[in-house]
């Protein structure tokens, strides 16, 4: 009945309106560059009358005479209201929006316009990360956000990526350990903590494809935001100390259904090869090493020459074979990518369905990566008050890989270490190998691994959520979200019995893991403006999360035939394990914001987190934050003319966030654990001393920032300085082992991080057909350890009070004694010593962690062409080049190849060089080893890199119309095209320890995107 | 508005309701249990006891290091020229390279203390189990303390003697279990004689509680007595040592084996490494359990392990000339069957090597039995204890000595009259016999230390009481010195 009345009154209303006196208003809409604007909606203020401009910017609209003002609006321009002139002509000139200020950012359970935010947030949009030849969106964020440092751990296709927000630190993570931010994908919290497996630390680079973030197809992403500061992040409480990364995927839009299709293919190659010795040089060094130790006619020397096929004439050698193993290990890989999306909807329902497929061959033999993704995003308005939305991602990724680190099966490492007189195959086609006695040297032919063994991993992931939104009235709404994240990971290793070594006869190991994560949150939102100038916002909510992680593994040895590759076919079972872990979080949170006249903005948040990981004495933690912002440009003394064209905002915030990553699921408890077995009886033992006071690690950050948008909004600058005090760091304090335990965990560590983030966006040239914009960012941060617990000033050498985390404490190399070729070092007094002691070590002035990083991206558009090129840079750190300690031995380990610089070895008294005298075994009489680990093997990690060049051609309107397309473009891209660095290893982009690390690739791709 | 207010209050009520559930933060590990709960179960206590055996099976303790290293530090064994870099520093007596059982032993002592403190109050443990498990815990605690005191402290007979120095500190004694953070202590070292008194006290209790039934892979009453005989011998309580040894031998549970079963029944199934007939107490390895893999004893000692398919061990440990001399080896030939049948001659990288085959690798890799107490040791202990009690007991001592001598194919020594050794000569004869009989089993270093002898290593002799001698006694874990100010350092460290 009520509905009927409503319908009737609407009809009545139309009738009445039609009866009023009408007139026709017309005009042409142009922009500030005098270009006609199509698609501007022209409406009366009450929205009852409206039309759109045509492609020449013209419009014509009939309105009753009581309509005095028209509204002109378009997403790309500032909305303009103009009074209708007596002649009925209105020709507005629209000014372009500064889209950055009005873009929507997600700020912890609510969305806001950037201009209303009082704390720093970094954001990249989907188009800035599309069409990259990496399966993870994280790579694509590199160099685009100030204060967000992104590094690939390695170059494995689909490899895991390290993301560090504002130099996030953790003592518990250890050197090179990841300090992960919290990832929120369409409202679902996703952990990216290393899930472990068979291969982790055991050779196979499988951490790569198991990265949970690879579940998301970068093509589906609308935007990525990073909450760097506690003022915004603290609403995520104990999970937010290392920043929060919020990923929002694309949604369907009202209107005709759109079909988009994209494809690209390309090649991947190793960026550089090391300049290693050829066979003649390598045998020469090995020969000298033997002669110097044993003499020219000793059995050892003659054996060496016989084994390497060398003959000596006049003191120089002539080997038979010469093989650069880098050509065996590296190859050109082919990669391809396909994406299909369908989206659309009406005023009730919008939808997006997408599917993607990637296939990447690695540039290192026997490594490749495949992924399929599927997504459905659906939104429906049930009625005026209630709407429902869902998003669902399914993905599977498969990786075949190679062993890493010091393994003989690692092609990367053995590409430069394998002796060049070895060739891969015997003339018969059989592999040369140590096991058939046709191989020279202690490192086996890596092809006996890569050609025969299996290293396989598969990850399947489901991330989905359903949310209900109920609007009580204009001011209040309530949202309930239910989400799940389900992940399975399967890993398999098979060692072929033909090459698995005597007595083993092949081995098989299998690992499988499942993560089940359920989350729900319920949030009440409030937003009301009083008397035009007072805006009050607020929210209150509850959230609950359960995460369960189960795993299973089995292994066995002894295979009847190499063709049997399953666990069932092993003769001797060697191990079975089942793993289990769970944690729960229960949290309440609230936020209150107040803005006066859009000029003064204050905001308070607080979250109370309860975690099953905290001890019973500290089950709940409260994480508050406050921020204020002052929009200086709005002040009267600047004048309204100024404030229309400029925007200056000062921001200050302080807040506390937490991290529970350092805590294991049950670290706080006294536990009784299994401990082997004896005579078929199971053993068990007190396994952990509980500490009920164990709790979160804390990050209290003070941030001061300024945003300036000026020069007709063509320059936008954001600068933030901050100091984070990291306290309650989890330290495993040693206790006397006579107690039966060696450590007990306590929240006693303290450290600080100080830094600055600068972001600058400029529109350098803006003309009719030509536009050039630049996005520059720079971040610097440095940390210092303040406390490591009572009575403890040092943990190992990496952590020392007063030093940076991951500091380097090592011997100082002093070159070679010109008289006898012995390596020299400095002792504690700065004097030369040949046999340095442990105490003769020094702290290097920088640590393993980079202190600065950033990027500069230029985009130039001319008519249909768009050229984008991006440089990234990073530095202030050392890389521990462990590989160098093997290839810089002056031939003293005679079965390993060396790099060219080693030819500058000391040969005769008076030689001035940094390369010691070759000496088999490496230890010259009365000297330390030729390759003693010293500052010689720590190299500066500073680099700049031309990361990307992409040229895109967008089809012109005419062409599109002819083919009945709504959009189409071609692109050609190159990645990692040039690198400037003094680092002698393959790739300075990695951090920490370079030990046979799979290097990054240079990639070139060609692609096409079409929208129907 | 009223409607909205009503709906809002329902929502707020629902939120408040959700947050008040008490179980929402409860989680439970599945591979571990709450400690208090577990220690109140019968099975938890049994598992704790079992874990001590499991821990001792490991390669850091009896599984390898505690057997091999005392041989390398002393004059019995050395590392082959071509080697895998294992134990080189111990073979060269480089300071700070010794066995490292400190934290492992105390962890096991804590477990024994847990059992001893919790077992009486547990109603589900039967009376018999209480008796035997306590007996085992006392025995194991005594074994662990004796291993600690002979590794980390000076020998009892030479304390304050002027020759051995005046440093008489033993090791800390802990008898209260540490199962909570507030129970952590910073214990000081007790004197050597206090530690020995404590060990004998534990063994006396074990002797009164243990039975003589059951497997010899767990301690029986004879094991407690055999260990007591050893401990009393170490501190020169000769009569007591003899009494305990007598008791073991008289009970005859594992009589001295004749040559046939002592060496091997057949070459394919040797007695050594597999249920040896004279094992009083030893560690057994079932398939797949506690297996140190390539870190096992036979891998470091032996080259061609008997397991099928055959495996080549590291074979890094060969026999020093000094031991071969005592074995009567001349030009690689000896009449002593302990050389001909238990030492394997091989050329490794053009070096003539002598590998022990006491752990022949008969069963799956790493699963040979490791004997900790055997009858021959008890017989030789009694011989030494008797010989030290004056001339009257010397014939008895020689009779003991002859038992292992004749079995090995050596001639019997006259027990009296012409040719019968006496005094220091007899003691030397016993020491030599003990060295040969117990070779490779981890006794040599401690036998030299407790008798105050030099270590005659070629080329570096270590003179009794010298600086270098300090390093035959292990240094206490640095981490413990760092965290425990009450712990006095050993001289030289």
Structural class of chain A: mainly beta
The low-confidence runs of chain A, each spanning 5 or more residues with pLDDT under 50, are 4-20, 206-210
Q: Report the β-strand fraction of chain A as a percent range.
A: over 45%
Oligomer: heterodimer
Give the tally of β-strands of chain B: 11
Radius of gyration of chain A from CA coordinates? 33 Å
- What share of the residues of chain B lie within helices? 40-55%
What amount of the residues of chain B lies in strands? 5-15%
Largest sheet features of chain B = 2 strands, antiparallel
As laid out across the biggest beta sheet of chain B, the strand order is: 2-8
3D shape of chain B: globular
Low-confidence stretches of chain B: none
Q: Care to give the gist of this entry?
A:
Chain A has 1012 residues and is mainly β. Chain A is built from 14 helices and 52 strands. In chain A, the strands form twelve sheets. Chain A has a 22-stranded antiparallel barrel. In chain A, strands 11-16-17-14-15 form a five-stranded mixed β-sheet. In chain A, strands 4-3-6-7 form a four-stranded antiparallel β-sheet, with no helix packed on it.
Q: Any overview of this molecule?
A:
The complex is a heterodimer of chains A (1012) and B (493). In chain A, a hairpin with a 2-residue loop joins strand 14 and strand 15. In chain A, helix 7 packs antiparallel against helix 8. Chain A is mainly beta. The two termini of chain A are 44 Å apart. Chain B is globular, with a radius of gyration of 26 Å. With 493 residues, chain B is mainly α. At the A-B interface, strand 28, strand 29, strand 33 and strand 34 of A face helix 1, strand 1, helix 2, helix 3 and helix 6 of B.
Task: Describe the structure using short key phrases.
heterodimer, A: 1012 residues, mainly beta, five-stranded mixed beta sheet, 14 helices, 52 strands, B: 493 residues, two-stranded antiparallel sheet, 20 helices, 8% strand
